[in-house]
Amino acid sequence: IVENDNPVGIISERDLIRKVLATRINPEQTLIESVMSRNIISVDINAEIKEVSRSMGAHGNKKMPVVENGKLKGIITTTDIVRVLSQFNKLYDAKEIIELGA
C-alpha cells in the first residue's frame, strides 16, 4: 500500500487469514487499511541478496518492499531469491541447508 509512492503498509496472506478469516469479519465490508501491517520492513534497491534474505529470515517475511530514496520500486519474494541463487554454481543439498540453518 503506497501513499505518494512511499510504502505505508503491506497486506499479506497471513494478514488476511489472521485478521479477516480467523476473526470472521466480512471481507466485503473490511477496509484494507484496517487489516494491513503498518510496520514495514523494507530494503534498499542496492542491497545484496544475502542482506535481503537475512532480513527476511530475521523478520519472518516472505515478501519485502524494495525502495529507492524511500520510494517503492518493487517487491522481492523468497521465490525471487531462490530463482537467483539457483543460477550459482554451488547449490546446496537439503542436509547442507538444514546444517546452515542451525
In summary, what is this structure?
This protein is of the alpha+beta class and 102 residues long. Helices cover 39% and strands 19% of the residues.
Quaternary organisation of the protein chains: single chain
Give the strand order, joined by hyphens, for the main sheet: 3-4-5
Number-wise, the strands total 5
How would you describe the shape?
flat
Biggest sheet, in brief? 3 strands, mixed
Any overview of this molecule?
- There is one protein chain.
- The strands form two sheets. The chain has a three-stranded mixed beta sheet.
- Helices cover 39% and strands 19% of the residues.
- The model has no long low-confidence stretch (mean pLDDT 86).
- With 102 residues, it is an alpha+beta fold.
- The chain is flat and about 50 Å long.
- It starts with a strand and ends with a helix.
- The protein contains five helices and five strands.
Write the layout of secondary structure elements.
Layout: E1 2-3, E2 6-7, H1 13-21, H2 32-35, E3 43-44, H3 49-59, E4 63-68, E5 71-77, H4 78-85, H5 94-101
Parallel strand pairs: 3-4
Antiparallel strand pairs: 1-2, 4-5
Characteristic key phrases:
flat; 102 residues; 5 helices; two-stranded antiparallel ribbon; 19% strand; three-stranded mixed beta sheet; alpha+beta
